[in-house]
Amino acid sequence: MEGEVLTIEQLLGRVQSGTRVLVSACLLGQPTRYDGAHREDAQLLDRLQKLGAIITPICPEMAGGLPVPRPAAESRQGDGRDVWAGREQVFTVESGVDVTKAFVDGARAAVTTAETVQARLAILQERSPSCGVQSTHSGGGLVDGPGVAAAALLAAGISVAAVN
Q1: Rounded-to-integer distance, Cα 72 and Cα 86, Å
Q2: DSSP assigned state of 63
Q3: Looking at the chain, which terminus has fewer C-beta neighbours within 10 angstroms, N or C?
Q4: Residue 20: phi, psi to the nearest 5?
Q5: Looking at residue 154, what is its pLDDT?
Q6: Hey, is 102 helix, strand or coil?
Q7: How many of the other CB atoms lie within 10 Å of CB of 40?
Q8: C-alpha separations of 134 from 29, 126, 128, 131, 153 in Å
């Protein structure tokens, strides 16, 4: 059974005390983005804590073995579903180095982490080539569709929502 793409409000409506939620580490203030920055969303964290969520951070790109900082990367066409299915690859933008294995390994790690902690919900960073939910970087721009880790989580039955 495939997971659902939810809005943040829909996802938060499913959170009760003790609900386990996988969250992009950059949204929790961890400097895990490709450029070494974060996208801390203190309001989101506060809401999750007030609801009693058990939060598990994940950075699929780091879990796949990529460093911080790291070169920006994206697929040349398609979205993360294509990469997850083996139909497309991910390359660094500047030098064209193939980093597909790291993205796929990171997506697997995200699924394994969610399964291990029994999280059925995930909040991810929109537009990321790993974590994008409704849009992701591809082909030098943005395309509709999930990133690699979001595609893997959805395929594993985990519902996802994105923060911009």
Answers
A1: 20
A2: H
A3: N
A4: -90, 130
A5: 98
A6: helix
A7: 14
A8: 22, 7, 10, 9, 13
Q: Is 73 helix (H, G, I), strand (E, B) or coil?
A: strand
**Tens of pLDDT, residues 27-73:** 999 999 999 999 999 999 999 999 999 999 999 999 999 999 999 99
pLDDT of residue 1 exceeding 90, the answer is no
Distance from C-alpha of 60 to C-alpha of 74, rounded to nearest angstrom: 14
Q: Report the Cα–Cα distance between both ends of the chain, in Å, rounded.
A: 27
Residues 52, 48: Cα–Cα separation, whole Å: 6
Q: In terms of Cα–Cα distance, which of 148, 36, 29 is closest to 86?
A: 148
Tell me which residue of 151, 131, 133, 144 sits closest to 81, measured CA to CA.
151
CA angle, 25 then 130 then 83, to 5°: 155
Burial readout 46-58 (b: 16 or more C-beta within 10 A, e: otherwise): eebeebebebbeb
Query: Distance (Å, rounded) from C-alpha 54 to C-alpha 69?
Result: 28
CB atoms within 10 A of CB 129: 27
